[in-house]
Amino acid sequence: MIETAIQDLLTLLPIPGPPAHEKEVAAYLHRTLVGMGIHEDQIAYDRAQDQSEYGGNVGNMIVKIDGQLAGPTMMFSTHMDTVPDCVGCKPYWDKEGNRIINHAAGTALGGDNRAGCAILLTLARKLMTLNGAHQPIVLVFFIQEEVGLVGARGLEVGLLGDQLPAMCINLDGGRVEEVVTAVIGTQRFTIDITGIPAHAGSRVAEGVSAAAIAGKAIAQLDKEGWQGRIVKPEGRGSANVGIINGGKGSNVVMPSLSILAEARSHDPEFRRKIIETWQNAFEHAASSMSNIHHQFGSVEFGPGPTYESFALADDAPVVIKVKQAAKQIDLPIKLVTNDGGMDANWIVAHGIPAVTLCVGQRDVHSPGEWIDLNDFEHTCKLVIAIATG
After folding, report:
1. What pLDDT is attached to residue 173?
2. Which of 95, 201, 349, 389 would suit a FRET pair with 57, their CA atoms being 20 to 30 Å apart?
């Protein structure tokens, strides 16, 4: 079993599949599933790309595997996309170290989350040998997780069956002993700053720099503890400037600048407080900077992708199911909280209680990324135990 799973992983890793370009990954998964005996009519695709800010060449893949045993449907999910830096990776199976490493300098490996895809293929192979001696199972391969859980947000839940699955096991993360039962909420937002252009030499005093407005606001937020890690009496969270675009040339006072930022917190009220504080800082910066004609720039805030936090109780049925399966295979686990968004945020929002199992990635999204095959194998066994136990 494990060698076939590793071969799947080695095949999946180098397939290009950044967000909105997962079609080739989906095609490999589709061919492999059909090759193991799953019928074409058991595989469907939704149109999640239609609601995406990024477009896309394929939707979420949904695979229904009928079971003959009594019990509600269980859902297992992962995502197909990788960060763009993974394009061009060259995976290598280091058998002595029992890991997969990357031989393409400067690229990430893509274990997040091709490892999850390979594990769900392993689960499907196991289920096909049981001839229906299991509960009904639905597998979901999401698109566009890395850009704000966009695929999971747009999931067409009606394709999952007549009734929602009773629970979901999502695959992502890092170390196998960690089972994520609570995840932070995140709101991304845009900041569009309009300045006043002027020649940067002869007429510089007639300009208002959008860059200067942004710099003043960000410096104030950082000084007052509202940028980066945020710890205040009323709550905890984080805020970050992720992307800045602006300018026409070095000889023009910057006329406009666009920022994509985000705020995170497990407390929705405190997350709104973070964004309100950012709005006030940028508006104050814009109103305090003028040119020689007493003209000012302006700032507009806009919404971006958002997902809400959740926390499952330790005695939730899906948590108990995972604990029982882990005990069955003698795998010690611990329940953890995660401060990075996961597809589970939207799965829970759709009404399906979900936990996330970690699949063995290390140093994710970096040139030093590698996959621990001990963890990978343990997660394969844990997923099978959950589905068949």
Report:
1. 78
2. 349
Closest C-alpha to 197, from 206, 187, 189: 206
Sequence letter at residue 219: A
pLDDT at residue number 62: 98
Structural domain span for residue 289: 186-307
Q: Which residues contact 31 (CB under 8 A, 6 or more apart)?
A: none
Sequence-ordered alpha helix ranges (H) in the chain: 2-12, 23-35, 111-129, 150-153, 210-223, 268-287, 317-328, 343-349, 373-388
334, 118, 131, 170 alpha-carbon torsion, rounded to 10°: 40
The CATH number assigned to the domain holding 157 equals 3.40.630.10
Residue 133 sits at the vertex; the CA angle it makes with 43 and 135, to the nearest 5 degrees, is 60
User: Pick from 292, 307, 322: which residue ends a domain?
Assistant: 307
Question: Is pLDDT above 80 for 174?
Answer: no
**What does the buried/exposed string (b/e) look like for 202-239 if buried means 16 or more CB atoms within 10 Å of the residue's CB?**
eeeeebbbbbbbbebbbebbeeeebbeebeeeeeebbb
For position 248, what pLDDT does the model report? Answer: 87
Domain total in the chain: 2
* Segment 150-163, tens digit of pLDDT: 999 999 999 999 99
Domain termination site, one of 287, 307, 327: 307
207, 176: one domain: no
What is the mean predicted confidence (pLDDT) over 164-175?
93
Cβ atoms within 10 Å, residue 324: 12
* Closest to 183 in 3D by CA, of 326, 354, 360: 354
Residue 80 confidence (pLDDT) above 80: yes
Average pLDDT for 121-130: 96
pLDDT tens-digit map of 326-362: 999 999 999 999 988 899 999 999 999 999 999 999 9
CATH assignment of the domain containing 200: 3.30.70.360
Sequence-distant (≥ 6) Cβ neighbours of residue 203 within 8 angstroms: none
- The closest of 105, 127, 94, 66 to 10, measured between CA atoms, is 94
Nearest to 212, CA basis, from 147, 285, 295, 273: 285
DSSP state of 329: T
> Within 13 Å, how many C-alpha atoms sit on residue 227's CB side?
18
